[in-house]
Amino acid sequence: MSALAQELRRRIETRTARAGVVGLGYVGLPLAVELARAGFDTVGLDLDPRKVAAINAGESYIPDVPTADVHALVGTGALKATTDYRVVAGLDTVNICVPTPLRKTKDPDMSFVVSAVEAIAEHLHPGMLIVLESTTYPGTTEELLQPALERSGLRAGTDFFLAFSPERVDPGNATWQTHNVPKVVGGTTPDCSDLARALYATAIQTVVPVSSPRVAEMVKLLENTFRAVNIGLVNEMALMCDNLGIDVWEVIDAAKTKPFGFMPFYPGPGLGGHCIPIDPFYLSWKARQSGFEARFIELAGQVNGSMPEAVVRKIGDALNTQRKPLNGSHVLVVGVAYKRDIDDIRESPSLDVMSVLHEKGARVSYVDPFVPSLPARAWHGDRDLASLEMGPGAFADVDCVAILTDHSTLDYQTLAGSAPLVVDTRNAVKGRYPHVFRLGAPASTGVPARAGAEAAA
Ligand SMILES: NC(=O)c1ccc[n+]([C@@H]2O[C@H](COP(=O)([O-])OP(=O)(O)OC[C@H]3O[C@@H](n4cnc5c(N)ncnc54)[C@H](O)[C@@H]3O)[C@@H](O)[C@H]2O)c1
User: Fold this and answer.
1) Cβ distance 334 to 410 under 8 Å?
2) What 8-state DSSP symbol labels residue 448?
3) Cα separation, 129 vs 70, whole angstroms
4) In this structure, what are the phi and psi dihedrals at residue 178, rounded to the nearest 5 degrees?
5) One-character DSSP codes across 370-421
6) How far apart are the first and last CA of the chain?
């Protein structure tokens, strides 16, 4: 190990290293909190002055990070935030957690990473460790970051240290959080790997070193492609079961009793969030550069991308049983966040369902206890919306309720008891009712009608 590497290692082990986190979002803020809690003087860098002001006021804006934790760490001076890249000159380590979205053409948009790295390069100094955490295509660390940082005249592996470590945060998951989800790390040289491993080991229970940044980049894409493909498979099964008159939910429940070789995935209105709908396309884009067609990714993308339309068809069919057209009907969407118990609407398929319903002339409203308001541009609608309350009277002039995200705080039995018609894409309503149409399941017949059905009909 070089003398520079030894010195940085000593600083990490004695917690005298000064840590920086660039991008204080769903990934960066929890990491900054863990590093500060591990004993480092930690600075968060973000271009959004509102986030920086919130942190410095001791407030969290990420539901998984309690304000009390931020408040305590800011209070002791362990954590602070800034918009000014000049702080990098005084840092020993920097973790980059900026967005990596897709362009409209489904090509990677690396502009956030490039601008962050260029800004860091201006203040890069010998002995620093730079770790990229943003999800990206294999090769990014060595092909994009390394040359950009080396334009400073310093060499990776000799003058500064460079690694990739994918983030696996699962927003809303109370069990698996930043400190106890194993962290994969791959450095451009053995010293780079060793230093990145040493940094994470101070804050995270298990660190899993791999041989290169490329392997670490690919690990993340395998994990998320695995989910995208399996969700695509189960969504196709749901559409098939709809056709065959078989209950896909019953099939999955029985299949998952197999103690080996099967893992349950569940159908729904499509993919959402910043990872699963996006990351696999980083991989297929990179594969295409070398003439390789990533067929599973494309096919899963097609199936998952068709689900909002399939759900609208299901809503139309359900309304049809009551001799109502979609055009002019009032559809109340339950759940607009992309998954249960979180407030994130990025890429949420609920927004696509709402947009198609609107295009077809339906009147759209929504209930989501996690998302109090929805601007018109978010759902491509004609007006800003506010979440309705799911209390008595919520269904007064509603023709159909569409359950798209099954937040655990809502009472689906009461909903089924009061709504005139329900399309349930999450199997949230327990029991079978003639007016509840589930995605991937035949319409129920010969089962008890819901309480009060006659009154509402
Ligand atoms: N959210 C997740 O569940 C999740 C899970 C695993 C991996 N990831 C990946 O982690 C990365 C970050 O995702 P996120 O969800 O935390 O994003 P986010 O949008 O919540 O946060 C990113 C932050 O970076 C800031 N930013 C943008 N450009 C900047 C720049 N040049 N300098 C400083 N700050 C800048 C933004 O203001 C924002 O606060 C992405 O690559 C994402 O794919 C996200």
Assistant:
1) yes
2) P
3) 25
4) -50, -40
5) T--EE-HHHHT-SS-EEPPP-STTTTTT-SEEEE-S--TTS-HHHHHHH-S-
6) 76
Sort strands 385-386 and 373-374 into parallel, antiparallel or unpaired: antiparallel
Q: How far apart are CA 241 and CA 233, in angstroms?
A: 12
Amino acid letter at 323? R
Give the bridge partners for 186, in sequence order: 164
Q: Which of ligand 1's atoms lies nearest the C-alpha of 136? A: 41
Which residue puts its alpha carbon closest to atom 23 of ligand 1?
23
The whole-angstrom separation of Cα 356 and Cα 363 is: 11
Q: Two tokens at 421?
A: 């018609």
DSSP state of 6: H
Counting ligand 1 atoms within 8 A of each CB, the residue from 274, 341, 344, 347 with the most, and so the one to mutate, is 274
Q: Which amino acid is at 238?
A: A
Candidates 88, 131, 97; CA nearest to 29 is: 97
**Which residue has tokens 């334009």?**
151
Q: Which of the 8 DSSP states describes residue 174? A: S
**Structure-token pair, residue 443:** 């319409």
> Which residue in 240, 37, 27, 59 sits closest to 135, CA to CA?
27
Q: Which member of 97, 241, 275, 400 is catalytic?
A: 275
Q: Write phi, then psi, for 195 (nearest 5 degrees).
A: -70, -40
Question: Residue written as tokens 């008891």?
Answer: 417
Residue-wise pLDDT tens digits, 228-287:
999 999 999 999 999 999 999 999 999 999 999 999 999 999 999 888 989 999 999 999
d(CA 332, ligand 1 centre) in Å: 32
Q: What sections of 171-294 are H helices per DSSP? A: 190-201, 213-244, 248-255, 279-289
Cβ atoms of 16 and 264 closer than 8 Å = no
- Indicate left, alpha or beta for 406 from its phi (over 0: left) and psi (-120 to 50: alpha): beta
Short-list 77, 20, 81, 79, CA closest to 53: 81
What are the 10-residue block averages of pLDDT along the chain, 457 residues in total? Answer: 95 98 96 98 98 98 95 98 98 97 90 98 98 97 98 97 95 90 98 98 97 98 96 98 95 98 98 89 94 95 97 97 97 97 94 98 97 96 93 86 97 93 97 94 62 40
